[in-house]
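Lab notebook, bench 4. The sequencing result for the construct came back, and we need a structural model before the next group meeting so we can plan mutations. Quick request posted to the team channel:

Model the 3D structure of this chain.
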Amino acid sequence: MQEGKHESDPWIVGAAIVLVVLGLLNLTATGMTGHAVRHLLFAVVGLAIMWVVSRMRVSDLRAFGWAVFAVATLLLAAVPLAGVATKGAQRWLNFGVFTVQPSELAKLALILVPAGMLAGGFTLARFVATLAIAAVPVALVAVQPDLSTAVVLVATTGFMLVLARVPLLPLVPLFVMGIASLPLAVLFLRPYQLERVHVFLSSNADPAGAGWAELQANIAIGSGGLWGLARDPLYAVRAQFLPESEHDLAFASLVYGWGLVAGLAVVVATSVIVWRAALAARTARTREAALVAAGIGGLFGIHALVSIGQSLSLLPHTGMPIPLFSYGGTAAIVGFAAIGLVLAVRRDGVARPLWAPDPRRRRRPRGVSAGTMTMIAALVAMSVFAWQVQHDRGAEYRAMSDAQMMRCIRLPAERGLIVDRNGVPLVVNVAEYAVAVVARMFDDSDDDARNRLAALLAKSPDELSDLIDAGGEGETQVEVGRVAPDQARRVVDARIPGVLVVPSGRRQYPYGAVLASILGHVGVADADDMQRWPHLALGSRVGKAGLEKQYDALLRGSDGTQCMYVDPTGNPVATGERVDPVRGHDLRLHLDIGVQTLATDALVDAMRTSRGDLGAAVVMDARTGAVLALASVPGADNNVYGPPADLVALAAQSQTPGPSALVNNATQTAVPPGSTFKIVVASADMQYPVLSPDAVIETGAAYTYGGHTFRNWQPMGPNNMLQAIQWSDNVYFYKLGELLGPEKMSDVANQLGAGRRSGIDLPGEAEGFLGTPENVGSIGATWYPGSTLLMGIGQGTVSATPIQVARWTSGIATGAMVTPQLAAAYGPELIPLPTATPQRLAFADRLDPVRAGMRASAAAGTAGQLADLPVPAGAKTGTAEDPSAPGEGLNAWFSAVAPFDAPEIVVTALVRGGGFGSATSGPVVKKILERYFPRPPAPAPTR
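Done. Here's the predicted structure in token form:
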């Protein structure tokens, strides 16, 4: 015996046992207890075989090799006749109690036989014979077809030729032919094998299809960390997502469960086997024994490199296991037998050194030391790469691991209410709840659960089953009924697994058409909504119009979630985290429903008597812009929008003749403002003085300009500015407009809000139009000399909405422009919503002559009907010619401010086609002002 050396090698035996133990840890962590027991039994049998083989004499290696080759060849020949097929390939023989994969035995045979044949040195005959003999098992494996194993057998043969010091001259052409023929292998690959190659070569493989295994291997390696996730209660679910976790991707599975430390243990144990096999080759007494030991070490190293490389996505998936570690009875027993051969070689070399030939005649296998170091270095490099993956993308892969096994059901939040300034509900939620069952968590076959739920829903068990069966394939939940609040509480208290109770989400609008154009409605989110709110879940209900849309973020609240853990097929396996929904905020408006109802009724009366086709009324705080009423007629019933929508009622509404009931006429209907625009022109004279307000000029019944006659609404005598506003003298404003010119009028009109949106908190506001010589071409019009005169009386290319007229009326009265706002505050604490600060006009201090005219109009002029109000008012009327208006084509305007000495409120009314403003819209405004400024009670009569 060589001094200091033992016949046995505890290092290589210990490494083999470590690999077995790590394989057992992997199998138990993934829940494959049956596989673990079989793996242990294979290991016990393998250890026994290892001991028997380790006692073999080296002189018997050649006979043993031929015996193994014969058995492997016979079994391979039997596979096409009686083999078990998987994925289109027959690789196994089933002997009832166990199965055998003959190709694993062939790997060992192609180490032993070439070692025996080439040990005597190179001759061409031995070289050709070795190739011919190796071709037999290679061909038998290829026809299974198992091309990846056939490639391994070819590589093993080539590896042995290199170790046996076959000269490079015959080897180089052989290797060149092998490399050149690789593209032809594509013709023989099965579809799943082609997919594996495509995944490796392509960076855009479908992660839900061909790229699934690679993605899951990356997740397993990346999220395993140093110590793994096996102690996670849900690891068994995580592990199910990794395919072939016991075999092809066992290394990735081990790192997933027990961490990178366990993966390093596999690398170290494999490296020890490779190292000790190389030492045995150096100790071997015969050249044949040295080739056997070196070949076995190389085979272990190649298997480990390829298997770990495919787990790290550095190599395509080939289905190659790590001997002793990956699950597989044949591979385990053959692996232990191979280690037994290494032990036999070592024992012979250590125990019989005197029989060893002269070292000069005993040539060691070619490159065994360099090859061993290269393999070990490659294994270490792969370990470093695995650590790098965890360091750089560990958090990302852990998140992916969590996300792929989690499915969450949205629990809709209850939408906030909308109330008026006094707390009167304007929008409420229907007291109704939806009851749904979670697919595959509610067991319809459980008669007790089904009967209990059916009873709570007042349905028969068969009806309930039919509803559940009617759910679409892949739906996570199926609605089975809608119930009242008390019934919903009973369902919740029953705590039936897999049953959810959520608000139905239906909205009710008690005032219907009175508020429809303000409040809007809700609906299921579409593509535009998803773009506006990217975090929205599919099926979310959002505001689609009006305040419901404008303040959707406040009203909608935050949806909750009920999460569940699912296996790779989507079957729920455990209940996950629940996040309760957060109810939306209630929204309080400045609007007064009493004033809104009064304004709407007054408009309806005015339209009925005047035969106008649409009307609008604005009631606004002149100091702040707070909107107290925003009436629009005709109106639609927004209750029909649901969801679900009442399609019949919607169709009936859309087919109603006349103007659209869906338009808010106060903010979206722009028409000529007529004489209400005269106070804007008068204000322009204050900013750009061209005519003294005290100057009295001739007016009369008409004004001739450029060969055209522009008529007054009635003949009038000489007037100054106050009188011209008081009686709405057209001729005065024809002349004033001519003096000012369109640029000065448009400049001041723009400052007073004409031709631009008011900024009211409603979507879809119209901006009107303020025509000038520069911009009329944009609407296909032409600016004529007379256009300037028409602009002076609010006709021609000027159009405005009622909210714009209200703004300039209050702006002139107060000297500051306000931004209209409907919403006041939100939440139980009534947190005020931001309000735009009034913007003082640059010419505010020069507007007294205009204000005097407005006051005179209300006291004893075209708006004289306001003279008997309990507070002083200022006003301007308007009768605008409008080709789109019905009847005589006259729009009735009336806009007033009160109290005029300290303005609080502005009221503007429009009836399109209503005729004279004072006659049609005047009574609307007066009714509203009378409500806002009630007359003091008459004193009690004295006795």
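The first strand starts at residue 83 and ends at 86.
Will bring this to the meeting.
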